[in-house]
Amino acid sequence: MILTVTPNPSLDRTYEIPALERGAVLRATADRVDPGGKGVNVSRAVAAAGHRTVAVLPLGGPEGALLARLLGELGIEAAGVPVAGSTRVNISVAEPDGTLTKLNAGGPELSDAEAEAVLEAVRTSAESADWIACCGSLPRGLAPEWYAELVARAHRAGARIALDTSGPSLTAALRERPDVVKPNAEELAQAVGRPLATVGEAVKAAEELRGLGARAVLASLGADGQLLVDGTGAYFGTARVAAVRSNVGAGDASLAGFLAAGGAGPAALASAVAHGAAAVQLPGSAMPTPADLDPSAVVTTADIPLDRVLREPA
């Protein structure tokens, strides 16, 4: 079982349009609404793969009620913590060439009591968890050290922690030695305080995060692939992708694939790459099922192309 923690969940509404024209009235060719937030997406991918998952998250207002209902329809157990503010709604506009425009709301402000209630919900739900995945930005009202406290409490309870966040929240949590952290290229550069131009520089940055406390680093490099740097070495994975439809939630699908495959080593990296590649070929923030995966398209190696120049994210 994989437990996910999403302190700032959302309803994600995606509109597909022929082209984005500023100031115009546009008619969508398709639209969908999905439960959102990085941890929620991990739970969705885990559930799509047929594994049990529990999602801990604050829920407020009619938006929170709809989010809980959508999770239940997907077979996800929602350990919802009632909060006074309303769950946020995020908007994505997708164009046929893969260009995605996102409008993300700030979300509710959590009180000290609500923040503690989320931590308590993690404790009571985590007894049978193989992994706890803590994902996403922190809502207003939570200090950057909140994730560090969560990691410390989880480790005291004997749980393994995967952390997908960035900025001060990531920096503060590293001292508690999360079992794996999952930055993208931009977040990895931010964490070490310098731009990363090549895959080799990304490897060095991942090694620095390990020096600061992370036991393993799973880094998404967008179209260039993924890195895994842990105590056994560094590994690199890529996959063929026919066409990118939407990259919303692709990194979350990757983390789900990594954890579902054991959360360690090249085999788990291959699973992460396969899940991420499948996700970008699906609409909106849809998560891949086993039928969407193409393991034959994935290549993982310890022979890393250190000189490869990282492409700018789309």
UniProtKB/TrEMBL annotation:
GO terms for biological process: carbohydrate catabolic process; small molecule metabolic process. Keywords: ATP-binding, Kinase, Nucleotide-binding, Transferase. The keyword Zinc-finger does not apply. The keyword 4Fe-4S does not apply. Residues 23-290 form the Carbohydrate kinase PfkB domain. GO terms for cellular component: cytosol. Pfam families: PfkB (PF00294). CDD domains: FruK_PfkB_like. GO terms for molecular function: 1-phosphofructokinase activity; ATP binding. Belongs to the carbohydrate kinase PfkB family. NCBIfam families: 1-PFK, pfkB. This is Fructose-1-phosphate kinase. It comes from Streptomyces melanosporofaciens.
